[in-house]
Write a structure and sequence with these properties.
This protein is an alpha+beta fold. It has a single domain, classed as Alpha-D-Glucose-1,6-Bisphosphate, Chain A, domain 4 (2-Layer Sandwich), CATH 3.30.530.20. The chain is built from 4 helices and 7 strands. It starts with a helix and ends with a helix.
Length: 214
């Protein structure tokens, strides 16, 4: 808990110290993209520390749940992988996702890395609440899979591995291995909404790919 309090304090301080000439804020957030980038760095530093220092065990008040979901798409694996691994294509096909803010994009050792923040409107008790999910995506084109680690207040962690399997005859199976970590009070809400949003995204991308829109 003390680490989380220090993280939040650092996050607030980082936002205040940003230059006044940063890009203007968007309608969906009160922060500029530069401020969101500072939040991403603070969240990532905390995330890395937290993952090493603790584990989701009962005595920590946290829980971990894993789920696998899959969908078959009538399109070649190369095309499905290219479209699906580009998070910009998820906007408009995910009920919560409003936009993606990319902070850094680079390739190292054949792996494509993307540091990003997803701006989402998540319904809580029927009221949409704007949240920021800070994450890193690692795309492995040679293996036809990508991984994502993300962190959202209040200390909700999600690990993803999305695998693309060639079924032959121009068909592809997309399997998402999802791992959610949250407090025992939030884990059911996190898993239910997380799985539902991923299934909605899967269906939206399938329709867009098969129709030729993407």
């Amino acid at each position: 808990m003390k680490q989380l309090v220090r993280f939040l304090a650092a996050l607030f301080a980082a936002a205040l110290l940003l230059p006044a000439l940063s890009a203007p804020a968007r309608a969906d957030t009160i922060e500029t993209d530069a401020q969101i980038a500072a939040e991403w760095q603070a969240a990532w530093d905390f995330y890395k520390f937290y993952q090493v220092a603790t584990a989701p065990l009962p005595y920590t008040g946290r829980s971990r749940v894993e789920r696998d979901i899959s969908i078959d798409i009538d399109a070649p694996r190369e095309h499905v992988f290219e479209v699906y691994s580009n998070f910009d294509n998820h906007v408009g096909r995910h009920s919560f996702l409003q936009r993606i803010v990319t902070h850094k994009d680079w390739t190292d050792g054949g792996v494509h890395y993307v540091n990003f923040t997803a701006i989402e409107n998540i319904p809580i008790a029927g009221v949409p609440v704007t949240t920021k999910t800070h994450g890193q995506q690692r795309v492995h084109p040679d293996g036809f899979y990508y991984e994502t680690d993300s962190w959202t207040l209040p200390n909700v962690v999600t690990h993803q591995k999305i695998v693309f399997t060639d079924l032959g005859d121009g068909r592809t199976r997309v399997t998402e291995h999802l791992m959610f970590e949250a407090s025992v009070l939030l884990i059911d809400f996190t898993v239910t909404n997380g799985v539902a949003s991923h299934q909605e995204t899967q269906a939206g991308l399938k329709e867009a790919i098969e129709s030729g829109e993407l």
